[in-house]
Amino acid sequence: MAIEAGLGHQDADLSRVGAHGDKVPGAGPIVHRQRLGTAPSVASRCPRPILGQARRLHPDRASRRIWISGGILKEAPVSDRARHARAPLLGTARAACLLACLGFLSPPPARAQTVRGRVVAAVTETAIPGATIRLLDRDNRSVSMAIAGATGAFVLAAPVAAEYTVSVEHIGYARVSLGPVQIAMGQVSDLLLRMTMEVIPLNPINVEVDASVRKLERAGFYERRRLGLGNFFDRDDIEARQARSASDVLRRVAGLHLVSQGYFTDVQARGVGSIGGCRPAMYIDGALVSGPRRSVTSFNLEDMQAQDLEAIEVYAGGSTVPPQYTAGGNSMCGVILFWTRKPGL
User: CA–CA separation, 319 vs 40, rounded Å?
Assistant: First the structure.
């Protein structure tokens, strides 16, 4: 059996004619041979022997098979068993050539339009990483966007050949617009975008700080209150108690006992029965005004008007008393600190 590849009714002639129209010498049937390549016309771009169908021409002759090696169609005798086992190879060869021929007929792929470049500072020429670059169409719509890298480099892909505007923005720099830029089909445009520093005006911010707050901060009131080792009363607490004098604030503090004689009010550590008992040391704006060893008439709580007080601290004694108020043994019965609302203190 002989295998012939051809197109339609021309099969029979191809079994006897070579690639240049001459007969191929040798015993047995002749198979058309042709080197694969690009022919002058579309109709002849694919070798005819592969596009045709194989069929039996001479049943009384030796069997042969066809394969492709180095782009040349070849033949060789094979056994019946090998012929049936290798039959799919012929179909594979046909498919490969068909795809190749279709590739010749396909239009070339479209080339993309690219805008690339760097974003730098106008004065120093240093890179501006993080800048946002946009490609805007005629309607000012963003069709492509990129973020500048560490070297300021960027790449934008233009969807079609047209006129575009390149816009670049970054915090602290004036916005830059370049265009219109005409980008042709497949064109690669290289740009160097320079940005200048921009001073951003800010509305003035007025910050008002209460002088009394600064005073308490310097005195360490807020820090000691955070530690929570005593009883603390700020201006809001004093007003909430509707106090008239310091005695109205201290009267509700656990551990203190207020003793009044007419208009005079003194304070003692709770549990002491006599008016001359253990009296806490009292400070006004950090200065000692009364202590355990001072006479009872040295300090009257009624003279401390609530409207003049900014804050009060009460410590029971021992380790709870701040170190700066323990000198001279005045803290053995506790310490009371008064902070006034006098301006500038």
Answer: 108
For 8-64, what is each residue's pLDDT tens digit?
A: 344 434 344 444 444 444 444 444 444 434 444 444 444 444 444 444 444 444 444
Nearest 10 degrees: Cα torsion 73, 79, 85, 90: 20
Sorted by sequence, the CB contacts under 8 Å of residue 173 that are 6+ apart come out as 121, 128, 131, 195, 196, 197, 198
How do strand 281-284 and strand 335-340 relate by DSSP bridges?
A: parallel
Do 198 and 322 contact (CB within 8 A), yes or no?
Answer: no
pTM assigned to the model: 0.41
Instruction: For residues 240 and 245, give the distance between their C-alpha atoms in angstroms, rounded to a whole number.
Output: 13
Beta bridge mates, 225: none
Domains in the chain: ranges and CATH: 8-105 (no CATH), 113-195 (2.60.40.1120), 211-340 (2.170.130.10)
Q: Is 29 in contact with 15 (CB distance < 8 Å)?
A: yes
User: How far are the Cα atoms of 36, 225, 291, 304 from residue 214, in angstroms, in the given order?
Assistant: 95, 15, 28, 22
